[in-house]
Specification:
alpha+beta; Helix Hairpins; Heat Shock Protein 90; five-stranded mixed sheet; four-stranded antiparallel sheet
């Protein structure tokens, strides 16, 4: 669904930003805490020791300062240095037991002092002035992220609704009313412009498709009358005893071409339909259609250097309108026969696939890409209409059949049609 794309990406991005900012705040506070403990405290202890020795030099013996957080010991003064601290080397020392303290041993000549700082007080200060502000900052960050998500989602919701409307359009009969923006909801001028542009485009596409269907339907109907006249005239001439030999073969070719044009008009009429409702479907024997269409292809060619045959591994039955199966296989066969100057054309039926092979000049990759386009097919170069393979492609797409071309220059062409929902039967 569209909202699962846009809004989720938006939420993920905002959440990612919140996590990054949170990590940055945490790292900053951690570094700040370490600086307080490791730098500021040590500097303070060094300053206290230096200040104490200055007072000793200026005024002689001085009382040892003793505060809530800082205790100073000196050899020979008061109780002296406690035994547990006497053996420490000059410098800083951290102890966690029995309490958390930072110890600084400072030596001047032969004398030394030991400063003991209660680090627990620093931890409390870090908590009060570090953890609590951090928690407040994180809450503010998360609230800001949530509000930004709400605002952003509200901003993109018109796009999401428009995407839903586009997705709900029926390709066969799109309703432009579905794309009209709701005046109460769509307040953004950009959204209204986008919806209006899409609505106009749908209207134009619908009008174009309807014109195409109407033209195809009307043209096909108009062609039926002259085709019927041609077939009746050919049948009448065929009954004339004076028509023999070469003239008889010419009449057969005319009759075959008329049948081909009839199939073509039927295919056009089908393609002009919006749906397949009302079509008569039966289990069509592809084997019989291949034999029949091969004979028709022979009737319209005068090339005696091309042989044609059907090879079958099994019987193949397709549930479809018979005229459509005839149109697909017939167009492929006529194309192969028309374009093969010398050699053979083979129709191979194996499993659910029909393959038509010829020994023509073949095609390169560029020609294969163009072969299904109207009026650029290779048959056009041989005097055909250039739409046969286009009709094959449109019909196979209409019925969800698979058509593939395998060809190389100088090796001929193999065109295969696979019928997924078919039945097969062993040869008897």
């Amino acid at each position: 669904m569209p909202d699962h794309g846009l809004t989720r990406r938006l939420a993920r991005e905002l959440l990612r930003q919140a996590v990054y900012i949170s990590l940055a705040v945490l790292v900053s506070m951690f570094v700040a805490g370490k600086l307080i403990e490791d730098v500021l405290i040590k500097q303070a202890l060094e300053g206290e020791a230096e200040y104490y020795w200055k007072r000793v030099q200026q005024y002689g013996a001085q009382d040892l300062p003793d505060t809530q957080n800082l205790t100073i010991y000196r050899e020979g003064v008061a109780q002296g240095i406690p035994p547990e601290l006497a053996g420490l080397e000059p410098g800083f020392h951290d102890r966690k037991e029995p309490r958390d303290v930072t110890i600084y041993v400072n030596q001047q000549g032969m004398e030394r002092i030991v400063l003991v700082f209660e680090a627990e007080q620093v931890d409390e200060l870090v908590f009060l002035f570090g953890i609590i502000p951090l928690a407040i900052a994180l809450v503010v960050i998360y609230l800001s992220t949530y509000m930004a998500y709400r605002v952003s989602r509200r901003a993109v919701s018109p796009v999401v609704r428009l995407a839903h409307s586009v997705q709900a359009l029926d390709p066969a009969s799109p309703d432009p009313e579905q794309l009209r923006a709701d005046p109460e909801l769509e307040t953004d001028e950009e959204i209204r412009v986008l919806a209006s542009a899409l609505e106009d485009l749908v209207v134009r596409i619908g009008e174009f498709a309807e014109r195409e269907r109407r033209f195809t339907r009307d043209a096909s109907h108009e062609l039926r009358t002259p085709l019927t006249v041609i077939k009746m005239a050919v049948d009448g001439l065929a009954r004339d005893p004076a028509i023999t030999g070469k003239s008889s073969k010419t009449l057969q070719r005319i009759r075959g071409s008329a049948n081909d044009m009839e199939h073509l008009t039927q295919a056009f009429l089908l393609l002009a339909r919006e749906t397949d409702q009302g079509l008569s479907r039966t289990w069509v024997s592809v084997n019989e259609v291949a034999e029949m269409e091969l004979e028709r292809a022979r009737m319209i060619t005068t090339n005696e250097h091309v042989s044609a045959r059907v090879e079958q591994d099994n019987l193949l039955f397709v549930h479809a309108p018979e005229k459509i199966v005839e149109s697909v296989i017939g167009n492929l066969l006529r194309n192969a026969v028309a374009y093969t100057e010398k050699g053979e054309v083979r129709v191979k039926i194996s499993g659910d696939t029909v393959t038509i092979e010829d020994t023509g000049p073949g095609m390169d990759a560029g020609q294969i890409k163009e072969v299904f386009k109207p009026f650029v097919s290779r048959q056009r170069q041989r005097g055909g209409f250039g739409v046969g393979l286009t009709i094959v492609k449109r019909l196979t797409d209409r019925f969800n059949w698979d058509v593939n071309i395998d060809s190389e220059p100088g090796r001929g062409t193999h065109v295969s049609v696979r019928f997924p929902s078919s039945k097969t039967r062993a040869l008897t």
